[in-house]
Write a structure and sequence with these properties.
alpha+beta, Sulfite Oxidase, Chain A, domain 2, five-stranded mixed sheet, 318 residues, 12 strands, disordered N terminus, seven-stranded mixed sheet
Length: 318
């Protein structure tokens, strides 16, 4: 009989919320009332042919568990960073100004064929699943979220990059008439981020279109965002409109603002403090608990090999 070795982040079965509770709640949220409310708030809903192929919730992938209880949904959807709509944590109402209907993504650069595709059609072509990941902010707070979406590697396979491509660059929308933060000209809008191709193909790199068994809300990055759980949260770019394959390391938003504090790699490292606070602990949202921060946010078994031989100092982790 094969022996299964648990992943480092996994909880014992007794610590996981009872499945019947989760499923009954999801069925309620998936009802017509929940869909109507999301649409009224400007959230993304699948349409047309793609809508017939995509239905939430997605199947849970048991290989990816958060290792802690889920953060309450109300906290996940109201305690957000989204500088396009303000520099405070209560931007969720302002984010409803963003209309995500008819959202398209351009895939370009070093690919066999550049294209622009509707996000619904892209999602219909992808293998869909739910994963529970920890999320660690550079501000030293953390949460545990059930993300719905697909592996970033599947999108890369679909895009068919050329062999010379070594990086993938992500770009969000530029709409200062609805996103007041983008009127602040001292920031290098639009928000951009990047990964190496090996990072992007890692099993943990994920493209999210939903959370808690339903489509993403605007403040959480609707209709499509990146999730890279071993890196600080600012690497997980929201509301993506362009994905570019390149052989040059991309300039990224926070690295451009301050490359001493926000390095390209941005891997979680409890041993490298910020100027005004330590990264050794994190505040777990939804509780009064502080816990030790783990290297690579506890995902070292899956990602440490990506950085072997590199200088594991500030240039790697910030």
């Amino acid at each position: 009989m094969p022996i299964r070795i648990p992943r480092p982040w996994e909880l014992p079965e007794s610590a996981v919320t009872d499945e019947t509770i989760v499923l009954s709640r999801r069925r309620l949220l998936a009802g017509a009332g929940a869909l109507g409310a999301a649409a009224a708030m400007g959230g993304w809903m699948p349409r047309g042919r793609a809508a017939e192929e995509v239905a939430y919730p997605f199947p849970r992938n048991p290989a990816y568990e958060g290792g802690r209880p889920l953060t309450p949904e109300g906290k996940v959807t109201t305690y957000n960073n989204f500088y396009e709509f303000g520099s405070h944590k209560k931007i969720w109402k302002a984010a409803q100004r963003l209309s995500t209907g008819g959202w398209e993504i351009t895939i370009d650069g070093m690919v066999e064929k550049e294209q622009t595709i509707d996000v619904d059609d892209l999602l219909a072509r992808m293998p869909r699943e739910e994963r529970i990941y920890r999320h660690r902010c550079v501000e030293a707070w953390s949460m545990v979220v059930p993300w719905s979406g697909f592996p970033l590697a599947a999108l890369i396979d679909y895009a068919r990059p050329l062999s010379g491509a070594t990086y993938v660059r992500f770009e969000t929308f530029l709409k200062p008439h609805i996103a007041p933060g983008q009127k602040q000209t001292w920031f290098p809008w639009p928000f951009t981020e990047g990964l190496t191709i090996p990072e992007a193909r890692n099993e943990l790199a994920f493209v999210a279109t939903g959370l808690f068994g339903k489509p993403l809300e605007n403040q959480n990055g609707a209709p499509i965002r990146l999730v890279v759980p071993w890196k600080y949260g600012f690497k997980s770019i929201k509301s993506i409109v362009r994905i570019t394959f390149t052989d040059q390391q991309p300039k990224t938003f926070w690295n451009t603002i301050n490359n001493r504090l926000y390095g390209f790699w941005a891997n979680v490292n409890p041993d490298v403090p910020f100027p005004d606070w330590s990264q050794a602990e994190e505040r777990v949202l939804g509780t009064d608990e502080k816990v030790p921060t783990q290297i690579y946010n506890g995902y070292g078994e899956q990602v440490a090999g990506l950085y072997k031989g590199l200088d594991e100092g500030r240039t790697i982790f910030f």
